[in-house]
Each structure stands twice: as C-alpha cells, then as structure tokens.
Design a protein that fits this description.
- The chain is an alpha/beta fold and about 575 residues long.
- The strands form 3 sheets. It has a 6-stranded antiparallel sheet, with helices on one face. It has a 6-stranded mixed sheet with strand order 8-12-13-3-14-15. Strands 9-10-11 form a 3-stranded antiparallel sheet.
C-alpha cells in the first residue's frame, strides 16, 4: 500500500507530503487545478520517462519519494528485492530525482538502481489507468495474458513454455546441422584451422600473467647481469686489455723480480700488500662471474618470453580475450567439429528428442486450452455481471479463443475480447464498439474482475468517469468502493457521485503565491468534504440545499459501502 508521497518542484507543485490510507482515496478539484500532477508523480515512481519540462520553473531539480508499507508480506516483492541485491526494510521507499539536464537518479531503499529495475518493481506495486489508458487491457495482444491471469494459469504456462523452448532449441540445432555438403566441408575446414591454431598455441590458464611476471624479473636481472659483466671485464680484462687483475699481476711480478735488497727493508711489506691485492682482485672477479651465473636466466630467455607473450595476446585477442575463454572455445569448436563430422547421427538423435518433447508439449498445450475454454466462459459471465451493475445490462462480452496453425510460446491459441454494447448490435473489438463513457465502465469492469489475480495492491484510476453521468456515475463509485475492499484504490474524478464513496478525500487546489501560481494538496475534514461535494454538485454557489444534498449523497454512499462489506 502507498503510505506517503512526497513531491518537490513538480510542475506547479512546490512541495507536498501526502499521507494516503487504505480503501478508496479520491482526489477532486476544479479543472486545471493540477490533479494530473499527482498522477504524474505516481507515473515517475512507476518508471515513466521524465522530461525537464516537468521541473518547476527556477528549481534545480524535482524529487518524488513514495513509501509503501506491508511489502514485506508480498513474496513476489521480497523475491525481487533479493534477486536485485536490495536490502529489505520495514517500508519500501522509492526516490526519483530529475535535473534540468535530464539526469535521473533512482533509489530503492537508498540503493541506486536503473530505470529498468524501477519499472519492473513498480509493476508489482502499482497499476495506473489513465483517462485514455485502457490500452493494456483493451489491446488484443494482451488479451490472452489477461485470460491466463484470470484462470490462474501461471505455473501451467511456465511448464508449457519450458518444453516449448526446449523444442525451439532442438530445432535450431537440427537446422544448424542440415547444411549442404559443400557448406559442411567449408565449415569443417574453418573449424579445423581454428582448432589447429588454438592447439598449437598450447595455452594454459594464467600463463600470460605468469610469463609477464617472469619477463619483469628477467628484464631487471638482465640489467644487473650487464653491470656485473662490465665490472668483471674491467677486472679480468678482454682481448684488448689485461684488466685490473692482469695489471696487478704484472706489478706484483716486477716487485718480486728485484728480490729483497737489505738496503730496502720496507719493500717486503709493499710486496706482500701488492700480492694480497692481486689475489683479492682475482677472487672478486671469480665471485662476480659466479653471481652472474646464479641470476637464473638464459641469454635468449628475454626474446623467448616477449615472443610467447605476443603469441598469447594475438591468440586470445582473436579467440575470446583471455586464456580461459580461448581454452573453452577450443573445447567447444572441437565438439562442434565432431558433431559436424557425425551430423547425420546427431540429427537422428535430435529428431528423436524433438518428437518426444513434441508429445509432451501437445499434452501441456491441451491442458491450457481446456482451462482457457472454461475460463473464457466464466470471464464473460463475470464481465457481463459487472457491466450490468454499471448500467450496461444489455452488454454482451466474449473472450474468443483463436486456434493457431502451430505452437507458439503461449500455446495453441490466441485470445481476443469482443463486445456488443447494446441489444441487437454485432460483436466487435471493444475499442470500436464502445463509446467514451462505455469504455470507461468496460475498463473498470475488466479491472474489477481481473484484479482478483493480478497481485497488485494499489490501483490508480485517472478520470475513469469520462463520459459517465447520472445513475451510471453512482454505480462507478460503488464499483470503485467495492474494488477498494481488497486493495488500495486512487481515483481522480469530477463527479460528486464517485467522490461521495471516498474513504479519504483530497482536494487539489490552485492559488497565487508571490506572483506565481502554485498547487496545494490537502486532505478534507468531514465538513470540508461536504463543501467540496456541494461545489461539485452546484458549482461555485454553495447553499444549504446543496450542502444537504451533499450530506445525503455521502450518507447513501456510506450505507452502500456498508452493505457491500456485509
């Protein structure tokens, strides 16, 4: 149930917080007062497209927030929230914010969601019927679904569709195998080439990451190896020089060649120091060579790693984006090639399975057809009873089943609703047979009957009284009140006969504030309600007689509501 609706900067409405109740919530007001603003706000909560033109002039944004209560008791809503990772709370709160730039922000229980998610959820919460919005119920493409909803065919239809789509899948496989010999050869050649390329790549999952880490190490190690090699070459020499070790050896040999003359006692210490230095240089050169050898990579590893990574990139770019996808694709292509090479055997097996599923599908479709035939009769009877109560006693309604030449996703038949509005008239599509006032009542009758199984707790009717007056208006009011016994109902109306049935009566009024036109929404007290219905009955002049008439109309409506409840 919609508990509260907060609106800010929507059209002429600066700000309003409206608290609704169970039963029938009626909104009235003079033409042009802004009753459509409330319907527009509910439409935004329902996921309808938002234009920047809706934003109040001069405002930076518009915001609509709706709080729904008792949603935790609805299994479908709870399942939807769980499936979309939205936290369940005591109340379900939807907020939508629109900026002049056209930016939409939608939150459900404070969690950002897309408009698509909002539309799907709102379909479980609220059902809006505009002045000219009998489209969903009156459009023939929706009639079979409406009949199935009335019949409670949800599970049986789901079972049927599971079998139907399995047959569709089998037929698709069979078709893919039924190629000409030349087509099969070309496809086999292509698959073989792709399999060979993938096989030769010899990919393993995670190889690219592993090789990339190794390449980073080898690049670092190569730099160290170059520095160590150059340092050691300076020590040990090369073809062009003796190096530090050779120079030290020559120096040591020169000093040792003079022996140890008695007159130069200090020479012995210098000879010893030079010998030690020469030995240290040779040992250091050996350790540098050993360190370079211990770095653990070959001379060609850098090139090999870069080449392997390039190959992995090429193959994965061509076959799926990463090693895991490419490996999976290799498996599937191998299976496809095997299936292609054994196509005749595979086709026989698929045809056998299709035939078996066709038998099951036929049985399930027959069950649906039988239920629909009975439901069509019951629906016609219920609709005619509702129309009779809405001052259309001679109307005749048919839910016609149309056989289909082959199975569809919905079974072996389609459905359309036909109507004869008056005695002696031929039956035809509702939109072509009914007048404006009749169309409003037909839509209400359809909604009243079908509402038993639609699972939606809040229904909104925007000026469903179009073309209705007199006795029929009172019957529409009584029908709305009866519909409101099992759900929350909103009705925007111009007719006092309908407003008198309200459980909560809201006045939409336009006024001037600071040189600007604004719209106010407020709930009426009992006395204010009498005045409003008096205005609706007699115009601007409210007399004691019109007030008495309004009180009598309210009292009579309350009595009819009591009788309906008993």
């Amino acid at each position: 149930m919609l508990k509260t609706l907060y609106i800010k900067n929507l059209a002429l409405l600066s700000e309003a917080s409206i608290e609704f109740g169970a039963g029938l919530n009626v909104m009235t007001g003079e033409t042009g007062a802004g009753k459509s603003i409330i319907i527009g706000a509910l439409g935004l909560i329902g996921g309808e497209r938002a234009s920047s033109d809706l934003i109040r002039r001069g405002a930076e944004y518009l915001t609509v927030t709706a709080e729904f209560s008792d949603t935790e008791k609805d299994a479908a809503i709870s399942a939807f929230l769980d499936e979309n990772g939205i936290e369940r709370q005591e109340s379900l709160i939807i907020t939508r914010r629109v900026t002049p730039e056209g930016n939409n922000t939608v939150r459900i229980n404070s969690q950002p969601v897309t408009l698509a998610v909002l539309r799907e959820l709102s379909g479980l919460l609220i059902d809006i019927h505009g002045q000219n919005d009998g489209k969903k119920l009156l459009s023939e493409k929706n009639h079979l679904a409406a009949l199935d909803a009335y019949a409670g065919n949800g599970e049986k239809l789901a079972d049927y569709r599971a079998v139907y789509y399995s047959i569709v899948s089998l037929l698709r496989e069979i078709k893919s195998l039924k190629l000409s010999e030349r087509e099969r050869e070309l496809l086999a050649e292509q698959l073989t080439a792709e399999i060979e390329e993938l096989s030769e790549a010899n990919l393993t999952d995670g190889e690219f990451e592993e090789k990339s880490r190794r390449l980073a190490f080898v690049k670092s190690a190569a730099g160290v190896a170059d520095a160590v090699y150059s340092s050691n070459r300076l020590l040990s020499g090369d073809d062009d020089s003796f190096g530090v070790c050779g120079d030290l050896s020559q120096a040591e040999a020169l000093l040792l060649s003079v022996g140890l003359p008695e007159e130069f006692p200090a020479l012995a210490e210098l000879q010893a120091r030079l010998s030690a230095l020469s030995l240290e240089a040779r040992e250091l050169s050996g350790e540098l060579s050993a360190f370079r050898d211990s770095l653990g990579f070959g001379l060609h590893e850098l090139d090999e790693l870069q080449a392997r990574l390039a190959e992995i990139r090429r193959v994965t770019r061509k076959y799926g984006g990463d090693e895991e996808s490419a490996i999976s694709l290799l498996e599937s292509k191998t299976q496809e090639l095997s299936r292609l090479q054994n196509a005749d055997t595979a086709i026989d097996e698929l045809e056998r399975r299709r035939a078996a599923q066709h038998i099951v599908c036929t049985e399930k479709a027959a069950v649906l057809s039988s239920i629909r035939a009975k439901a069509a009769e019951d629906l016609a009877r219920d609709i005619e009873r509702e129309l009779s109560e809405l001052s259309m006693p001679d109307a005749r309604f048919w839910a016609e089943l149309i056989p289909l030449p082959k199975f569809s996703a919905a079974g072996r038949e389609d459905a359309r609703f036909l109507l004869s509005a008056n005695k002696g008239e031929n039956a035809g599509p509702i939109t072509k047979i009914a007048s404006g006032g009749e169309l409003s009542r037909i839509m209400l009758a359809l909604k009243t009957v079908l509402a038993k199984n639609d699972g939606i707790h809040t229904a909104v009717f925007d000026e469903i009284d179009t073309g209705v007056s007199g006795i029929a208006a009172g019957k529409v009011g009584r029908k709305l009140a009866r519909l409101a016994q099992g759900r929350q109902v909103f009705a925007v109306t111009h007719l006092p006969q309908i407003a008198a049935f309200a459980d909560r009566h809201f006045e939409i009024k336009k006024r001037e504030d600071g040189g600007r036109t604004v719209t106010d929404v407020r709930i009426l007290s009992d006395d204010e309600r009498v005045l409003e219905i008096s205005r609706m009955t007699g115009g601007e002049t409210v007399t004691e007689a019109t007030k008495l008439s309004a009180r009598e109309l309210i009292a009579a409506s309350e009595l009819q509501k009591t009788d309906a409840h008993s």
